[in-house]
Design goal:
The structure holds 2 protein chains of 2 kinds. Chain A starts with a helix and ends with a helix. The relative contact order of chain A is 0.16. Chain A contains 10 helices and 4 strands, in the order H-E-H-E-H-H-E-H-E-H-H-H-H-H. Chain A has a 4-stranded antiparallel β-sheet with strand order 2-3-1-4, with helices on one face. By secondary structure, chain A is α+β, with helices and mostly antiparallel strands. Chain A folds into 2 domains: about 170 residues, no CATH class; about 90 residues, Alpha-Beta Plaits. Chain B is of the alpha/beta class. Chain B has 6 helices and 10 strands. In chain B, the strands form 2 sheets. A 6-stranded mixed β-sheet of chain B has the order 6-7-8-3-9-10, with helices on both faces. A 4-stranded antiparallel β-sheet of chain B has the order 2-1-4-5, covered by helices on one side. Chain B is globular, with a radius of gyration of 17 Å. The chains are: A alpha+beta, B alpha/beta. The interface between A and B is medium-sized, with 13 and 23 residues.
Chain lengths: ~270, ~220
């Protein structure tokens, strides 16, 4: 019963670490998906006093993916009845060229500022307009959320690591009799600590399985997915192969590093 | 004759100014049976602990099985201990392991295969008349039975040296006799060196033995 309690304590602590890491990964994945959506919606309007080719635009900044010329025909057609043909012809000649620029990815506020400056440096370009205000606010909020989650995850990981360390100290006391008897018969440190390592590995595997089950249940209920779809995002919260393997490696890494710390501490005490 | 233990001006102490054994010089021949006696607190257990490297000499030199104990490295100490069998007064059996696995411990540490160690353990448990208790755990056995398990464990890997620290201290007459028979058997049949720390040398002992006595930190050989 006592042993089971010890197992559960370590499994819960490891599960908490894995869960916080996975939540961070899911938030990051959500932001990447949102960036993708923003990127498609995002464009910059450039006003130029002469024709510019897509290659010229691309040469100005590598973030520029493509550029489309905006036709002025519709506006001129609307003006046909309102101004004289002579004036209309003059307007046609003096009217600047309008371009819509698409980017290869969603830019950071710094990148957009840099891009605008870069474009304005071109002698033919008269004006650059970005429609990023709303997007920027939402995006900045999401980045803030990501940072908060990151800090929160690190704090949880630190606290639970301390709990795991304490748990392993308890294990060490529990196993100290066996370990010291084995030492009296010449067992090397790794053999004396084999049980600790075995327990740590088994608990890491169990914690990973529990994480997989937890995210499987989330996906089955689908409320999280529904929530994301309402803001136009569709992502996998948990890739069972990739995330599962990563979580297992993290759990194994944390538990083995802590076991090694305990073992080294124990051999130094000897 | 080869010497298993050689002590030259050996001094032992736990604290800096509290000498327990002072400048002792003696040696123990391979294949001999040796008793070390002395009053309580005279330093018998301290001396035997130094033989398996649990205490480092404060001064002088101590060689056990050709290995120098002074400033011994962990790997060398482990190597030495793999060739020594130790019997403790409080048995020091692993409670959560079965009797069979406890006896197997030195064989596991020495890297014997399951088949070899299994056969050896069966033979030893038969010898100490505990084969029917093989699957039980130490707390389920009496003190005398636990000490027989401890002796079987000490013999399992055919050590060059058996160190027994008051092996019959807590046992009744019958159990004590069984333990002495086992230790005598190991000495006469396997030519294992046996060093026993005890308060009194049993009158029933049949092997030729050497007797050292500790008093006031000095070790004397008693003819």
């Amino acid at each position: 019963m006592k042993s089971l309690k010890n197992h559960i304590s370590l499994i819960i602590a490891l599960f908490t670490v894995l869960f916080s890491v996975q939540i961070y990964v899911a938030v990051d994945r959500t932001i990447v998906a949102y960036e993708g959506r923003l990127k498609n919606d995002y464009s910059i309007i450039v006003v130029s006093n002469k024709s510019l080719t897509p290659a010229e635009f691309k040469a100005m900044d590598p973030i520029i993916e493509r550029s489309d010329a905006i036709s002025t025909d519709q506006v001129l057609k609307r003006l046909e009845g309102e101004i004289s043909k002579k004036n209309l012809d003059l307007l046609k000649l003096t009217l600047p060229k309008f371009y819509r620029i698409y980017l290869s990815r969603f830019p950071t506020p710094y990148e957009i500022e840099k891009l605008q400056k870069q474009l304005q440096k071109h002698p033919a370009i008269e004006r650059v307009e970005g429609y990023a205000q709303t997007h920027d606010t939402v995006y900045k909020l999401m980045l803030l959320f990501k940072d908060v989650v990151q800090v929160f995850s690190i704090a949880i990981a630190a606290v639970t690591s301390l709990l795991i360390l304490k748990e392993m100290r308890l294990w060490q006391f529990q196993h100290s009799d066996r370990m010291s008897i084995m030492a009296l018969f010449g067992a090397p440190v790794w053999l004396r600590s084999a049980v600790l390592f075995r327990l740590a590995i088994v608990d890491a595997i169990i914690a990973t399985i529990l994480l997989c089950i937890a995210f499987f249940v989330f996906e089955q209920y689908g409320w999280m997915d529904l929530l994301l779809r309402t803001v136009g995002i569709s992502i996998d919260l948990f890739h069972f192969v990739n995330d599962g393997v990563r979580s297992l490696l993290i759990a194994l890494g944390v538990s083995i590093v802590l076991t090694i710390t305990i073992v080294i501490g124990n051999s130094e005490e000897e | 004759m080869d010497k298993v233990i050689i002590a030259e001006n050996l001094s032992l102490s736990y604290k800096e100014f509290e000498t327990i054994i002072s400048k002792a010089t003696f040696s123990i021949d391979a294949g001999s049976f040796v008793f070390i006696t002395g009053a309580s607190g005279s330093g018998k257990s301290t001396l035997i602990k130094s033989f398996y490297g649990a205490i480092e000499p404060r001064a002088g030199q101590l060689m056990v099985g050709g290995v120098k104990i002074n400033r011994i490295s962990t790997s060398k100490l482990n190597f030495l201990r793999r060739h020594i069998g130790i019997v403790f007064q409080d048995y020091k059996l692993i409670k959560e392991w079965t009797i069979e696995k406890n006896v197997m411990l030195p064989l596991i540490i020495s890297g014997y295969t399951k088949e070899v160690s299994g056969a050896q353990v069966q033979r030893l448990l038969s010898h100490v008349k505990l084969i029917h208790q093989a699957g039980k755990y130490p707390p389920e056995l009496s003190g005398g039975e636990q000490q027989r398990v401890a002796v079987a464990r000490a013999l399992a890997h055919n050590p060059i040296l058996i160190l027994a620290d008051e092996p019959t201290g807590n046992l009744d007459e019958y159990s004590s006799q069984v333990i002495w028979n086992l230790l005598e058997g190991a000495n006469t049949k396997l030519k294992t060196t046996v060093v026993v720390v005890t308060h009194n040398i049993p009158s029933t002992i049949t092997v030729a033995y050497k007797h050292y006595h500790i008093e006031m930190g000095n070790i004397y050989e008693i003819a």
